[in-house]
User: Fold this.
Amino acid sequence: MPKPTSKTPQKIQRMLALHAEGASAREIAEDLGLGHSTINGWLQEVGLPPNGGQGPRRKRKRAPPGGLPGAMLAKQQRLAQLESPVPSADIAGMLTELHEQLAEQHAFVRYYREGAKAGTATMAELDKAQIIAERLATKIAQLTPQGTEDPEKDPGNLEAAAEVRQRFASLVEAAERQRAEGGAR
Assistant:
């Protein structure tokens, strides 16, 4: 049986925050209680090179990442936030928030699709963005109140109405027969 994953949106978010501060993969791993090779793999999945360098860790100068990975870092952090929306008792407000997040997520999908074409993003990033968009769309569908059907177009109601009309017609016929029999005597 495979070992359950220790990867959670919260850990990814923490990893991205520490990486942005210049922490090395080993320092991030120590903070999260994981192995540095795991962190290196996670960083690779999101398209970020590990921070660090040669020499003792404590003497290394901290430098936030720059260039394309730095620009992608903000997007990765936003993806981590979208991955775990905060539940709310206000369904209408939550639906509004989810619709905004879905629109933003569609922008991420387009961004990663173009990045994959240009070779600046991986297919794993594109797949993740698409999966999150699908999850958001599913949550929206689950939370959206279902409208009531038009009773005049409901087949069950039409059948019931036909039965009621038939009963009324039978009652009217019976009453007319009874009157006719009573008047003929």
About this structure: The two ends are 91 Å apart (CA to CA). The chain has a mean pLDDT of 79. Residues 13 and 77 are 6 Å apart (CA to CA). Helices lie at 9-20, 25-32, 36-45, 67-83, 91-118, 123-143, 155-184.
